[in-house]
């Protein structure tokens, strides 16, 4: 029982994620989380103005149900399955973060400095979250998928386009984590 | 109803495993990009390995889906530009806010309300792509 409260190992977690992806294939669907963003835009009525959102989102309702399930899962995991030992990252990483003014995890999933409610008084932090989201939304639709659709589902099906996208994810991610983030956070 | 339930359960398991493996954590993504832990690489590799084996089994044994129909997994469109540029833009955002689309929803469900700002940005980015789609190289 103790185990479920600890950080789940990478091999168990990876296996379950792989099985989640395969179950959706078995249900005749595909694994892809960013498609839901397009559905939400369509539900908001944007299809009247932009043809990209003029599609039958109702055929994608199953994926929105997956999202609702995932949100419930996140709720249960955070509120009933957590332990103070969680998110024990590399001490070197903690040191590096301290230099940029980011608080250590101490069991928290998210740094207070970027996601605490007090950031609502910091226009700069709000802008960071907004621009980050913008890049994720724009980039995933441009690339035709995100971590789930390309990295997991695409690479599992040995797709070369997905490999290009995933290498792109890492080029962008490494540039951000090593060069841009220190500048953004210190300014 | 049964139809909806199976997607809800799959999503629920997905939400729990991504949270308990801490793949939704900003810290884990930062640590991954700093190459200071194997954790995230292990998760992604095992997920892909499981997927490769599963998909090969489906293809070689002609396994049918739960409605008894043949499973056809569409190939991704050929091309390069969209994958490189879109991929890099996505990666920049991923490392900045430490979450990709799945975790954005999971974190909001878990009660991290400021992630709603990230979701709003992501919807805006998706909208912007829809507007600019025909002008972009693919």
UniProtKB/TrEMBL annotation, chain A:
- Lipid bilayer topology: Multi-pass membrane protein
GO terms under cellular component: plasma membrane
Q: What is its main location?
A: membrane
Could you list the residue ranges that cross the membrane? 6-28, 62-82, 125-144, 165-185
Q: Name the UniProt key words of this record, in alphabetical order.
A: Cell inner membrane, Cell membrane, Membrane, Transmembrane, Transmembrane helix, Transport
Record's subcellular location = Cell inner membrane
Q: Does the keyword Cell inner membrane apply?
A: yes
Q: Which InterPro entries would you find in this protein's record?
A: Sulf_transp_TsuA/YedE (IPR007272)
The UniProt family comment states: Belongs to the TsuA/YedE (TC 9.B.102) family.
Q: What is this protein called?
A: Uncharacterized protein
> Organism source for this protein?
Flavobacterium segetis
Automatic annotation (TrEMBL), chain B:
Specify the domain of life of the species encoding this protein: Bacteria
- What keywords sit in the KW lines? Membrane, Transmembrane, Transmembrane helix
Transmembrane helix in keyword set: yes
Give one Pfam family, short name only: DUF6691
Its name, as the record gives it, is Uncharacterized protein
Q: Where exactly are the transmembrane stretches of this chain? A: 39-58, 83-106, 112-132
Organism source for this protein? Flavobacterium segetis
